[in-house]
């Protein structure tokens, strides 16, 4: 089985991605690390516990991670994901935070990867704070990873939270910088433009959430807020989301569980702009190889959308 560690800021698309990983037959999720991002860290932890409960997979350990980015800059995704990160749907049976592991995410990442050297694929679908801090604690840990999959950054200077920056990198640019510049393992990046290029039609979305299973009903409830926002009277929103439904984090998990989902990559050295007044948090794609980086990232450019859809459908069965 493929061994996966997920590091999430559980908003609605993180929940979708987690459910996809849990449903994959040849995948073993070793643990789920929580980070600040779409919601505050308490809500992120609660959201992951809720997802595991719906999927009847409460045996998977959940770890609390960083509650803020390295330089204390705070973003949140409330506008799209709702204040609680999962569409603000009341859930009186939500599991409490006592179900979290006592160990912190940063310690758990290095421990688990060290226990399975060369075997773990780490999938990051939120700000990279935990992963950067884990590296600061144990500089050998990236070399023990099999792969690192990241949803974040941009390849054409296009952003979703600022003109030039994507949410996960903008939420902690220093963390993204540390990871992109210091990790020697194979690094696969699902950028914001890659997600936008593969917007799914609303007809598919309707079919997906109306499968009638408990998981699909849960998905329908938690996505109602973001669906309304994405369809809302457009102007610049159409520019952000395109004419359909985008599940950004599912792209990263799909690539990790089935590599044939990605049919084309470009390979370049990558970094992150930290200084710019407009470009802070923007991913730098070194097309001229000016930075002379040894580890060229695999930047995803084409997706087999039919395979992605199948994985999404199975996730809610
Ligand atoms: C990313 O930001 C978050 O809102 C989503 O969960 C996704 O990880 C997209 O830019
Ligand atoms: Ca996310």
UniProtKB/TrEMBL annotation:
Q: State a single Gene Ontology molecular function.
A: hydrolase activity, hydrolyzing N-glycosyl compounds
| Domain called Inosine/uridine-preferring nucleoside hydrolase: residue spans | 5-309
What InterPro entries does the record tag this protein with?
Inosine/uridine_hydrolase_dom, IUN_hydrolase, Ribo_hydro-like
Instruction: List the Pfam families.
Output: IU_nuc_hydro (PF01156)
Q: Which family does it belong to?
A: Belongs to the IUNH family.
- Name-wise, this protein is Inosine/uridine-preferring nucleoside hydrolase domain-containing protein
The protein's organism comes out as: Chiloscyllium punctatum
